Every structure is written in structure tokens, then in C-alpha cells.
């Protein structure tokens, strides 16, 4: 038989080309193996830092009503139902509230789901009972509310979950619907491709895809969506490499964390962990069969199957998935019927985060920038646990937005800070009248003169310098002429332009007299005052001028809270922080607020004496309006007003919080608001909702209540009308001391007979 030269040529050429293709493909696979494997292992996706408010702990004896607890539960997307068999539900029967708490990885470790019964009596939690075992509990911890996220540059949002956290029903359903042979192919399924090709040819259009889960994952992670042969070839080769290098469970877990589920504004929702929160307000392990089916149905196209825009379209697709689940024995008949009869129910809001707190989040970001984090934290994501109290924050925002009812002041702005002084936490922070406006955060960045807020620091410093000085110490309220920093005469005045003469330090502080503060401040020394302010956390510039004694130092509202937190916390300074702890998405600890960063800046005696005098400010002094609003609840406070009424300040201390309010204008115009007419009413309205805890005024060790002359400060008998009772280091009563603070001389007869 004669050979045909052209046929031989074609065969040889074909073999050569085939060999070239094989060699190129081999080198390409080697290249992919070297690069793709490293990237997939370490940089599959980026996860955001999810920011949480403080968890709500309900304790026996707490003054909280049933309605308030229900409000907390509904904010956490708990649903009211007659049955609480499943997590995330609560029921109400009279004064009894049954709650099935979700499992959650708290900052201090994971806690399993827990079902409890709360019984209320007269606005308090009377008992907490574990159900069904009947154990008496002292508290129950609810998971914190998500308040924000800090994204990578990609703006992709996801909550990383391990495969063990994903319900087996969801895993089996995904494989059933998207890739039946997932555990039996090598990343690419030729039979699936042929079946899809045949179906598309019959339909005359693309009706079926042949991509495996691995190919879908590769496309989502690394490739564009263009439909070209080169992209499909690239996709197939990458899938082969990933399937060869990584086990099936790793690929499946990555898919569950990568799959796209829609948009929350400019943020893309990726992964079933975040999608379950976004659509149902639930954790992925809580999903019911109909919810699992809906999410698997949306994998085909989250925009086309958007449950909020096209509920009927989604229901048809979901029901198809449910039928497949039933036909393949993933669901029993009763479960299938129950699921298919369930309406499409998703969260009404298109926002993952319902409440936006941009001013507080700015502080969180600022602290986060100073915390040493793992360089690759985006691979595992972060959970940032903050001290934000949602109720306190909402109330602070409300009082700031309301301003001063009945008084319209052009361009009036302000700031509000609430701190838990015992734990060093920033509980609430509002940086402007418009709490949702991102911009200049006055709580952190507005440096304003503090006026009379300096007076407690002056007297505390003076009492620290000398043990003989106390609240009973004598001071004079009379005119004084000094030389200012420019060498000119300076004659400080009281706000009423009057002089009260002799008085005690206690009354000087209670009634906010300027001239006694100037005298004591200069006696202590401006440099010593600056040193004390530095100890109490002030880092901004302080000029060593005599005017410092009248508050000529600029501080932010947050810095003011920091200073007064030291006084409230028995003289112990600790930084005020928003961030309490940080973990990865799977609960591994990354950072914990350093509890050891504490130092004593005032003795406990001096701190107590300062608080006691500030309590007098509230009970009868310049802040008496607050005391009248909350009779029977001891609190301390201090008003502050600057020249020409440009700044209105008020700081309060109760048994739990330091609350700081400031009002003014950004261009430093006169507001005609004093501390008592502007900032104080705002704090009072805040306390109407966030009830103050009584401040203990029991003297610390080494101090006792004694009677002193109201003007001279001398120890006098207790039955004197001129007496003022003050805490002080025990002082002996001089023999023959009368009520006018004078020692009466004995007559010659008394001296003779020792009378």
C-alpha cells in the first residue's frame, strides 16, 4: 500500500503540536502549582474586622423591665414565638420571659446555647432559671450586637466559619444541587461538561453549566466572568491544581466562605456565615431547612434571586431545592411539607448593621491603629469587642440632637462622653449634634477651654501637697491683682462680680468661686498643676500662665472624662478605651485590653474629699438642678463656663459612670449658655433614661465627719448653728472652743479651781 505523504505530514505535525501542547501545559501546571498553591493556602480571601457592642449581661436583681429585655432581644434579631425549642426565640407569659440564647464565641471563650426562664417583679429580674433542669442562675450573657465592620480595600464582607460550624444539611444540599460528584472528580468533571453542552445545544442557549464547585470557586477567587475558551481552560487547569494540592473539605469550606450573596450598599456579602446574618439575623448553625434551601437557591444568582425584590421567583427556586432534598432523603416528608409551606421571610432591612455609630467607630479605628495586630489578620478576620452600651449611646445621641429645648442657637454644636470609670471603658461617645454625620468628631478632636472644671483639680492638688489642707481649710474670696503672661495687670473676677470674704474650700468649690481657686492655685504653683494634669492623662499643650487657675487650658471632652475618671476611681488613673478585646473570626484571642495599665495619681483620701465637695455642687451648689431632678440619688458634678459664654461644660459622677457634656460653636461664638443652663440639662435628660447609680459618700479610712466653722474652717462643737459637717482627718476640738471659732478664756476663779 502506497503511503500518502500529506497524511504522514499531518500526523507528524499533529504529534509535534500535541507534544508542544503537553509540554506547555506541563510547564503551565508547574507554574500554577508553584504560585496558586501558596496563594490559595495563605491568601484565599480577605475578611473584615467585625465590630461588636458590649454584650448584655442580665443579672438577678437588675433594675430592668421585661419590656426593656424584649427590646434588647429584638435588636439581636430574636423572634417572638410560642415555642423556644430552637435558639434565637423567646416567649412571654405574664411576668415570665423564656429565652433560648444562641451559641456565640464571646471574647472570653465560646458559650453554648442556653435556654432560661427570667421572672420579673416590680421592674427587676427576680430569678433566672436554667431550663429544663431548673437550676437557679445568677446571670445570663446575651451575645453582642454587630455595630460595624472595618473592611479591606476590596470591600468584601464575610464572617469566616469552619466547615464543622455549617449544618450538614447545608453541605449535603449544596453538593446535591451544584456538584453531585464533588467527592469523586479531580476538580473538573468532563461528563458534567458534556451533559451541559448537550443540554445547551438542545435548548439553543445556555441553560446549564458544567462547572464543578472547585471551578466555581476558582472563578470567584481569581478570574473574571468573561466567557472565552482561554478563561475556561485557565479555570480548568487551576481547578486541577487546587484539587490535587488540597483536600475536599478545605475546598468546600473555602467555597462556603467565598460564595457571593448580594450587596449591602458598597459592601459585597460573601459566605454563608454573613449571609445568614444578613438575610435572617441568625447564625449559620441556626438555619432551618427552608432557610438553607433559600441560600442554596441563591447561589445560582443572588441578584436574580433577590428575596426582597423577587420573593416569588426565589420561592420557586427554593421549592425546587426542597423537592430535591426530599427526593434524595435529606428531608423527611413532614419536614418537607413544613418547609415548603413556609413563606419567604427575610430581614426587612437591606443593611447588615442597623445602627450606625460613626463617632464611636472612629475612636475604635483610632485605637485599632495603635494595637499591634498580626500582619496577615485579614486572612482570619477579626472580631472587635467594644465597651459600647447601645442604650446609653442611643440616649446620648438623642439628647445631643434635641439640644436645648426652647432655645434655638445658631450653629450650636456639642459632644457627649459616657465612661465606666471602674473598668476604664468608653460606654458612649457622640461627636456632634448629628450623630450620623461623619466628619469632625468633637468628642475627640475639639480642644476647648475647660473653665471652672479646673477647680476640683486645683483643690485636689492642694490637698495632695499638704495633709493639713482639707475641705474645711480657710480661704478668702476677695479681689486680687496679678501680672499676666504679657506683663499686664490681671484682675480675675467672680461670675457675679461679688466677693464673699472668708469661706472654706468646700464652699468655694460648691459655689464655684473664682478668686479662692486662683489664690489656692497660685499657692500650689502653676507648674505643680500642670504636673498633676499630666498624671491624669492630659497630653495636649498646657501653658504655664496664671490664667490656668481659671481653666485656660484646652481639652477635648474625652480628655475631660479621663481626668475626672481618676477622681471617680479613688485616685487611680487608667486610660479610657473603646476596645476591650479582639479575637479572630473563629475565636482565637488576638488582644485584650491591658488591665495592668493603672497608676495612682491621687490618694484615696484626696479623691474622696474631691468627690464629696463635687457632691455638694449637685446637692446645693451650681448644679443643684441635677440634685433636684434625682432626689435621694447622691451624685457629684461640676459646671464649667468660659469667657463670654463660649463654652458650656458639665461633668457628673454617679456610682458607675462619668458623664461629660460640652456645648459651643465651631467658630467660637457666644452661646449665652452657662454650664448649668446648657450642658447640665443635657446630662439630666440623659439620666432620665439611663438611671444613675447612687454615689457612695461613706468616708474612706482615715476620714471622719466633723463639725467646722462655716467661714473660718475651725473645728467647733457639733451643736453650733454655724457648724458645717465635713469629712476630714480627725482633729481634736480645742478646749473651751465656742461656736464663733474662738477659745473662751477662763475666769480667774475657773483657773484657780481648775474649772
From TrEMBL:
Subcellular location: Cell membrane
Segments forming domain Bifunctional transglycosylase second: 58-142
Pathway listed: Cell wall biogenesis; peptidoglycan biosynthesis
Top-level taxon of origin: Bacteria
Annotated TM spans: 9-31
The Glycosyl transferase family domain, residue ranges: 148-325
Catalysed transformations (reactions): Preferential cleavage: (Ac)2-L-Lys-D-Ala-|-D-Ala. Also transpeptidation of peptidyl-alanyl moieties that are N-acyl substituents of D-alanine; [GlcNAc-(1->4)-Mur2Ac(oyl-L-Ala-gamma-D-Glu-L-Lys-D-Ala-D-Ala)](n)-di-trans,octa-cis-undecaprenyl diphosphate + beta-D-GlcNAc-(1->4)-Mur2Ac(oyl-L-Ala-gamma-D-Glu-L-Lys-D-Ala-D-Ala)-di-trans,octa-cis-undecaprenyl diphosphate = [GlcNAc-(1->4)-Mur2Ac(oyl-L-Ala-gamma-D-Glu-L-Lys-D-Ala-D-Ala)](n+1)-di-trans,octa-cis-undecaprenyl diphosphate + di-trans,octa-cis-undecaprenyl diphosphate + H(+)
Domain Penicillin-binding protein transpeptidase span(s) in chain numbering: 414-652
NCBIfam families, alphabetized: PBP_1b
Similarity comment text for this entry: In the C-terminal section; belongs to the transpeptidase family.
Function in brief: Cell wall formation. Synthesis of cross-linked peptidoglycan from the lipid intermediates. The enzyme has a penicillin-insensitive transglycosylase N-terminal domain (formation of linear glycan strands) and a penicillin-sensitive transpeptidase C-terminal domain (cross-linking of the peptide subunits).
Protein name stated in the entry: Penicillin-binding protein 1B
Organism: Idiomarina baltica OS145
